[in-house]
UniProtKB/TrEMBL annotation:
Residues in the signal sequence: 1-15
UniProt keyword terms in alphabetical order: Membrane, Signal, Transmembrane, Transmembrane helix
GO cellular component: membrane
Protein name: EamA-like transporter family protein
Compartments where located: Membrane
Domain of life: Bacteria
Domain EamA, residue spans: 148-277
Keyword Coiled coil: no
Family annotation (PANTHER family): AMINO-ACID METABOLITE EFFLUX PUMP-RELATED (PTHR32322:SF9), INNER MEMBRANE TRANSPORTER (PTHR32322)
InterPro entries in the record: AA-Vitamin_Transporters, EamA_dom, EmrE-like
TM spans (from-to): 36-54, 66-86, 92-109, 116-137, 143-162, 174-193, 205-227, 234-254, 260-278
Length: 280
C-alpha cells in the first residue's frame, strides 16, 4: 500500500508539471525553451541544497549517470521544442507511446518477461489515451516537432530505466540535474522559440521555478526512490495515468470543461493500468 501511494504521489507530481507548463505558456508569460531551462536550473539548486542538508555532500558519479543526464536533457528540451508547434493531445500520445516502447524494450533486454495481462493492460490503457487525446479535425503533424517529441519520450524512458540503478535517489537525481543544467543552458541558447514569444514575465518565471524545484526536482527524486522497487514494465504503464491526472488538474485549476468522453476514456485508462499490475 505504501509503494502504491508513493507511485500515485509521483504521478501527481508529473501531472502537476504539465499543468504548470500549460498555465505559464497559455498566459504568454514565458516561452517553452526558457521554461525548460529555468525548470532544470531550479531543480539543480534545490537538490544540491537538500543533498548538503540531508546527506552532507553532493555526488556527481554513480551507476547510470551518463544515461540519466543525457536522458534528462533529451526529455526537457525535446519536450520544449516539440510544443512550439505540436498539438498538446497529439504530443502527449507521441511522448507516452515512445516512453512505453522504450521502457518495455529496455525491460525485455534486461531480462524481464511481462505477463500477458500486463501487455493487455498496457494496450487497453494506451487505447484509452488515444480516445482521450486524439486531436479532432484534420491532423497536421510537423515532422520536426514530432521527431522532437519522440526524442523527449526516448529521453524520459532512458532516464527512468537508469533510475532503477540508483542507490541514493536524492543524490542521484541531484547529480543528474547538476550535470544536465549547464548542458541544457547551452542547448537552450541554440534552440528555436515560438515566433510570438516575448521576454519571460515574473509569473512565467515563478511557475517555471515551482515546476523545477518542487514537481520536477523533488518529484524525480521520489521517482528514483520508487523505480528500484518495481519492474520497468509496471513503471512504464503507471505513467499512462499522467495525462488523465493532468487533464483533471486543468479542470480544477485552469477552468477546463469536464466532458463525458473524459470520464469514460479515463475509466478505460485506469482500468488498463489496474489490469497491468494485478498479480493474477
Amino acid at each position: 500500500m505504501r509503494l502504491l501511494l508513493l507511485i500515485a504521489m509521483t504521478m501527481v507530481a508529473f501531472a502537476a508539471n504539465s499543468v504548470l507548463n500549460r498555465a505559464a505558456l497559455a498566459a504568454g508569460g514565458i516561452d517553452a525553451v526558457s521554461f525548460g531551462t529555468i525548470r532544470l536550473w531550479s531543480g539543480a539548486v534545490v537538490l544540491v541544497l537538500l543533498g548538503l542538508a540531508l546527506r552532507g555532500r553532493v555526488v556527481l558519479g554513480g551507476p547510470g549517470r551518463v544515461a540519466g543526464v543525457l536522458g534528462l536533457v533529451l526529455y526537457i528540451y525535446g519536450f520544449s521544442v516539440a510544443y512550439v508547434a505540436l498539438d498538446a493531445g497529439l504530443g502527449a500520445l507521441i511522448l507516452f507511446g515512445t516512453v512505453q516502447v522504450t521502457m518495455f524494450g529496455g525491460s525485455l533486454i534486461e531480462g524481464e518477461r511481462p505477463p500477458v495481462l500486463r501487455w493487455m493492460g498496457a494496450v487497453m490503457a494506451f487505447g484509452g489515451l488515444i480516445w482521450l487525446l486524439w486531436p479532432g479535425g484534420g491532423l497536421e503533424l510537423s515532422l520536426v516537432h514530432g521527431a522532437a517529441m519522440v526524442l523527449a519520450g526516448l529521453g524520459w524512458g532512458i532516464y527512468s530505466l537508469a533510475g532503477r540503478r540508483a542507490s541514493d535517489p536524492l543524490l542521484a537525481t541531484g547529480a543528474n540535474f547538476v550535470l544536465a543544467a549547464p548542458i541544457g543552458f547551452l542547448l537552450g541558447l541554440a534552440l528555436p522559440v515560438s515566433p510570438e514569444a516575448m521576454a519571460p514575465e515574473v509569473s512565467g518565471i515563478v511557475l517555471a521555478v515551482i515546476s523545477g524545484a518542487v514537481t520536477s526536482g523533488l518529484g524525480y527524486a521520489l521517482w528514483y526512490h520508487v523505480l528500484p522497487q518495481v519492474t520497468g514494465s509496471i513503471a512504464a504503464v503507471a505513467q499512462l495515468t499522467v495525462p488523465v491526472i493532468a487533464m483533471a488538474g486543468g479542470m480544477v485549476f485552469l477552468g477546463e470543461a469536464l466532458t463525458a468522453d473524459f470520464v469514460v476514456a479515463s475509466m478505460v485508462v485506469l482500468g488498463g493500468v489496474a489490469l497491468s499490475v494485478l498479480r493474477r
